[in-house]
């Protein structure tokens, strides 16, 4: 029997996994998985249970959105010998699931885990925190964690657009120094993202030919301060079409970055509030997690 800890966020997305819980457990059990179910109740529950119990299991299965997955992986990264990880995406945007080409229905995702093979994936660290697919600052980053869960469930990805409109007048410029593998950049930016994904908030997409999820490198996207709202609109429309204006958009790859500013900058980590930071060190933990896909 494969000892399995099934971590479920019952409130993720439209509660798909919660409504199919018996079918999921029955499916795993029929395929010789010994399943223990842990439904999360509060923030960091998933991190704490994985820290405490991961060494008792052969496999961790996470069912939830990007935030729940981040908690599970953050717990796993505290272990030296980590069990394998299966993912059943049931959140609103499921950015990493898009990059990994995972099924969007929970039963199909579970079957993929049962029939799957190992895939090693890079994990990022930002100071003392871990991120699965993105650490970002600046324009619209507040949207992902100020949009209510009910609003996300009802409207899906369009909820981020609607919430974003409310924050248009709050866009700030940050003077930043970025030291990375191949040089130093100093400029004023309204947005920055360090990613290991082909999808950002389900809206922006990076070319899949440019992104390898286990090459030890992040994709870094920086947007300089536009002169007016029209220029900002053109930048955003270009990003949606994967057309990068070199005048305003900087794109490169790096495994290690040090980002400093004279003021505190609010960050998001995998769509959740990452707090404000003045000095940030970001590192790539090459092939840090073994997924079963």
TrEMBL record:
Pfam families: DAGK_cat (PF00781). GO terms for molecular function: ATP binding; ATP-dependent diacylglycerol kinase activity; metal ion binding. SUPFAM superfamilies: NAD kinase/diacylglycerol kinase-like. SMART domains: DAGKc (SM00046). Residues 1-130 form the DAGKc domain. Belongs to the diacylglycerol/lipid kinase family. This is YegS/Rv2252/BmrU family lipid kinase. It comes from Natranaerovirga pectinivora.
């Amino acid at each position: 029997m494969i000892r399995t800890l099934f971590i479920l966020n019952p409130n993720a997305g439209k509660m798909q996994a919660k409504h199919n819980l018996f079918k999921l457990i029955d499916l795993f059990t029929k395929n010789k998985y010994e399943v223990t179910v842990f439904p999360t109740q509060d923030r960091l529950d998933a991190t704490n249970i994985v820290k405490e119990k991961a060494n008792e299991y052969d496999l961790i299965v996470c069912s939830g959105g990007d935030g729940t997955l981040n908690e599970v992986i953050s717990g796993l990264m505290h272990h030296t010998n980590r069990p394998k990880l299966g993912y059943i995406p049931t959140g609103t945007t499921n950015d990493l699931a898009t990059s990994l080409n995972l099924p969007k229905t929970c039963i199909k995702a579970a079957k993929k885990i049962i029939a799957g093979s190992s895939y090693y994936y890079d994990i990022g660290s930002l100071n003392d925190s871990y991120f699965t697919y993105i650490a970002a600052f600046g324009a619209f980053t507040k949207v992902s964690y100020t949009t209510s869960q009910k609003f996300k469930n009802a409207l899906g990805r369009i909820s981020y657009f609607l919430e974003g409109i409310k924050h248009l007048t709050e866009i700030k410029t940050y003077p930043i120094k970025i030291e990375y593998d191949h040089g130093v950049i100093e400029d004023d930016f309204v947005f920055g993202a360090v990613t290991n994904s082909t999808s950002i908030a389900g809206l922006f997409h990076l070319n899949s030919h440019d992104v390898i999820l286990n090459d030890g490198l992040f994709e870094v996207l920086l947007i300089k301060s536009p002169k007016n709202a029209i220029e900002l609109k053109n930048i955003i429309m270009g990003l949606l079409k994967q057309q990068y204006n070199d005048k305003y958009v900087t794109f490169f790859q790096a495994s290690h970055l040090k980002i400093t500013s004279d003021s505190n900058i609010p960050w998001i980590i995998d769509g959740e509030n990452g707090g404000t930071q003045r000095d940030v060190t970001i590192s790539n933990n090459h092939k840090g997690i073994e997924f079963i896909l």
